[in-house]
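SAMPLE LOG
Freezer: B-3
Tube label: C17
Construct: single chain, 240 aa
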Amino acid sequence: MSELSVVIPILNEAKNILRLIPEIDKVKKKIKINKFEILLIDDNSYDHINQVVTKLKKRVPYLKLYIRKNRKRDLSKSCIDGFNIAKYKNILVMDGDLQHPPQYIIKLYHVFINQKCDLVVGSRDLLKRGNQGLSSIRRLFSIILIVIINFLLGNKTRDPMSGFFIFKKKIFTKNKGQLFSGGYKILSDLIYTSKDNLKIKDVPIRFDRRISGKSKMSFSILTILVYFIFIKYINKIVYK
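STRUCTURE (predicted):
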């Protein structure tokens, strides 16, 4: 029986969620998943997300909202809270800012199921100019970080910085005690913490521009990413 939990970490994305959830609902009907839920993991926004979700739930009853009150805002920790809450054995992660087009869920899911993968990544082609949804500086830093990650930690996917992917929940359950559990990119944390030989596939995606709100990327986030790479590299050497 097919089942999928969609985990969407959000912060002040109410306007985007109003557009995103109906699009995901259309996709769900096309792939005919028996057990399905959408989990919005909100980092204590101030944009009246409760009202938006109440309105949406009239059309999308499997939509759920969890607010991380009195906790430090952190994208990876939001995802981890979502993984712990998720009811189903397969989990899809995507952003709530409309930069991950929902129609790609169909291809990600089909590759995941048909090729019996452990993890499928929605990979951005950052070397291709245009249609990347990133500023030139963000694009350059992302390319540099991807090259560093793949060189130091191992080339597991073309886009270890992606925030759009589907995986087996048991990968998280088995490794959650060893996760870095902080910062910006939970995908790399899952991949490079797992000691198993995971079957990982890439699915090329178009990365759209943000419609509303602003990016959460900052210098402090970048610093955490560099520290994450350093820690994972040291662990790789020590436990090789």
